[in-house]
């Protein structure tokens, strides 16, 4: 299957894999496209298999990444997803190989990705990363793992910033949510569904929009897509977080 690279010139005519026909996420879909157009100028790459489905990889040089990771000359995978019927056909390996080739072509020392100790929603499957030669090079509570693959064997792996190893957020009252427009789902699920849930439960809600690299790198966890905390503790990285909150709030 053909791999297609999105650019500032073709993005308005191409889908971005997620929320393709999800009308409730229409605004978030356009915000993600607008975000991509800006970040393309900073070396951000979006590659997808040219099908109507979630088969894509996004990556960026560490120097332009919004993630709270310190290092230099590595490529960071921002999002990597192969779904449903497109699994088991080599699509994931082809996309990852494209990322590695781009890193090599640009003289980079390797590739890194934030994942976990096991498969979790919206995270790259750690078993796949390990199978492709990645190793755990750093970690942060409660379950974040920084996976890395060296191109230059003499290079030092980047590290998660100390400030992103807290595992908790500073706001200890009620629900605290962080989200960015790096995903087309976050705007709707955070600003509408989560807000309605908090109002129904009469629980204080603080929503933090990660709108810049500077804000992203101040996160208390190494994750910028979407996260929800309750009384300071991380509840979930999922969009539909209400079921997890119910277990705590009742």
From TrEMBL:
Ranges where the YoaP-like domain occurs: 204-247
Transmembrane segments: none
Highest taxon, organism lineage: Bacteria
InterPro entries membership: Acyl_CoA_acyltransferase, YoaP-like_dom
Pfam families: YoaP (PF14268)
Protein name: YoaP-like
Organism expressing this protein natively: Aquimarina amphilecti
């Amino acid at each position: 299957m053909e791999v297609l690279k999105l650019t500032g010139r073709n993005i308005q005519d191409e889908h971005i894999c997620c929320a393709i026909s999800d009308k409730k996420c229409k605004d978030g879909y356009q915000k993600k496209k607008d975000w991509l157009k800006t970040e393309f100028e900073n070396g951000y790459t979006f590659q997808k298999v040219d099908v109507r489905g979630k088969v894509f990889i996004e990556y960026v040089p560490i120097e332009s990444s919004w993630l709270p990771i310190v290092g230099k000359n590595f490529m960071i995978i921002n999002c990597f997803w192969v779904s449903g019927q497109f699994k088991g056909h080599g699509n994931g390996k082809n996309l990852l190989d494209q990322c590695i080739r781009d890193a090599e072509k640009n003289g980079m020392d390797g590739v890194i990705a934030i994942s976990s100790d096991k498969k979790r929603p919206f995270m790259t499957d750690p078993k796949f990363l390990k199978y492709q030669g990645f190793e755990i090079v750093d970690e942060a509570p409660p379950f974040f793992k920084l996976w890395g693959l060296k191109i230059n064997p003499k290079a030092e792996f980047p590290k998660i910033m100390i400030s992103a190893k807290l595992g908790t957020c500073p706001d200890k009252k009620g629900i605290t949510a962080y989200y960015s427009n790096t995903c087309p789902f976050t705007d709707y699920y955070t600003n509408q569904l989560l807000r309605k849930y908090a109002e129904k439960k009469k629980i204080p809600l603080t929503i933090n929009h990660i709108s810049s690299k500077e804000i992203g790198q101040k996160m208390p966890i190494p994750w910028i897509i979407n996260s929800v905390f309750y009384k300071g503790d991380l509840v979930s990285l999922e969009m539909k977080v209400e079921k997890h909150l119910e277990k705590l709030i009742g």
